[in-house]
Amino acid sequence: MYAIIEVGAKQYNVKKGDIVEVEKLDAKEGKEISLENVLLVVKEKKAEIGQPYLKTAKVKAEVLGEIKGDKTVSFKYRRRKSSHWSKGHRQKLTRLKITEIELAA
């Protein structure tokens, strides 16, 4: 059984026991949260597809902590003008462990 969920502006393919890193959520470490934006659930070759979300499905996840993602560097250069700049950014992420996928009949 797996599900496709939407967290923030991104979609993730998850199954029970997976650990995913999503955009920062307001949740304390060790708490269990319920993700309501479920787009699709597949259970034994039977797929339930939402329009856009499934009203009867939930994905429960445990918050493992907050981390920072890899550094991305933005660099701008203008030739012959002695003008250039460089900026770095590290996105804050929340690490989730998927504990359960619920689909009401």
What is the topology?
Blueprint: E1 2-7, E2 10-15, E3 19-23, E4 32-35, E5 38-43, E6 46-49, E7 57-78, E8 83-103
Antiparallel strand pairs: 1-2, 1-5, 3-8, 4-7, 5-6, 7-8
Structure description:
With 105 residues, the chain is mainly beta. The protein has one domain (2-68, 95-103). It has no helices and eight strands. The chain has a four-stranded antiparallel sheet, with no helix packed on it. Strands 3-8-7-4 form a four-stranded antiparallel sheet, with no helix packed on it. It is elongated, with a radius of gyration of 19 Å. The mean pLDDT is 95.
Number of helices: 0
Helix and strand string, N-terminal first? EEEEEEEE
Beta content? over 45%
Major β-sheet, in short? 4 strands, antiparallel
Q: Would you report the number of β strands?
A: 8
Q: What ranges have pLDDT less than 50 throughout 5 or more consecutive residues? A: none
Measured between the Cα atoms of the first and last residue, the distance is 15 Å
| Helix vs. strand class | mainly beta
Shape field? elongated
Helix percent reads under 10%
> Strand order, biggest sheet?
2-1-5-6
Mean pLDDT: 95
Tally the structural domains: 1
Question: For the CA atoms, what is the radius of gyration?
Answer: 19 Å
Index terms:
0% helix; 4-stranded antiparallel sheet; single chain; mainly beta
